Amino acid sequence: MKLALISRPFVYHGGVETATAGLVGALVAHGHDVHLYSPPGQLPLPGVVGHRLPVVRAPALARALWLPLAVARAVRAADYDVVQSHERTLSQDIYRAGEGCHRAYLATRGGPGASPFHRLVLALERRVFARTPRIVAIARRGRDEIARLYGVPSARLRVVYNGVDLERFHPDNRGRHRAGARAEVGIPREAWVVLFVGSGFQRKGLRFLIEAFGRGEARTWLLVVGKGDTRPYRALAERAGVASRVVWAGPRPDIERWYGAADVVAVPSLYEPFGNVHLEALAAGVPVLASTVAGGAEVIEVGRNGALAAPGDPAAIGRALDELRGQPWPRLSLAARQSAEPFTYAAELAGYERVYREIPAAKQDFR
Known about the structure:
Layout: E1 2-6, H1 15-29, E2 33-38, E3 48-52, H2 60-76, E4 82-85, E5 94-97, H3 102-107, H4 116-131, E6 134-137, H5 140-150, E7 157-159, H6 173-185, E8 192-197, H7 206-213, E9 220-225, H8 231-240, E10 246-248, H9 255-261, E11 264-267, H10 276-283, E12 288-291, E13 306-309, H11 314-325, H12 329-340, H13 345-363
Parallel strand pairs: 1-2, 1-4, 2-3, 4-5, 5-6, 6-7, 8-9, 8-11, 9-10, 11-12, 12-13
């Protein structure tokens, strides 16, 4: 099948991009003719035909509109069996809602206000959900959210979960990397380490995790891996009296080492369609504390492979961490790994291929 796939460039610190990279590899391995449309910055991928999209040097508002227009022109000139977009573009057969709903995300921040940029993104989002034959959510929560906020009928909605690299993210990494990774950033060998992974510090609830640490056990350390402005969070850690137990490691390409260094991964997000962090940590045999509003909560069994806490509630986060700390590690680790094993790239590929087979008939409704 000849596929056009529209996506931002893949970078190692982005969960959405990492998920796309895994899917692209599976598509190529299964014999599909994959054409990737992406702005400058995308490295060549084996077996993939790359098409560079022009990008204008302009404010964010102009760039947000330019990309959909550039994609429309580029794809219109070719003949594809399926056009699949992972971005908010103007014309596609499948839209993968990997970032959920911008409207729902903005609600966690009090709404778009008067921002022209956010209003443009919302307008593009409305068009995507109204005019795309198939919408693929990455969790049931996302599917239900799209249906509720935009009235998309169930006949056009599908759920295809992300896959995870079960070899790269493996419980054996604990033995390989735990001591070395901790020594690299100055964490004591005997510390109980909570790992936060993510580049959206505000959206992923880092503030509330730090506040929970201010109430917690003195031998617990927080390791923050991700890209972002750490200054307000460092100041918060100082005020909470935990700065000496918080390590800022920045974005890391070798994230599997840091899962190996951790005793639990905490992502108490305010909004999260289904973070790859959930699957990567579980695959590595590390229990996960997730937010009750995250798509990843669908794979968390409280007390078995992780815990859940209400978003924005430091006390609930602290209690959940205490509960996990009291559980036997081998049992938690085994259950975590087992819960990730169904989420293969082969399973994700099979899900998309089912959607691809629906497209010829689905297009008839949009002519």
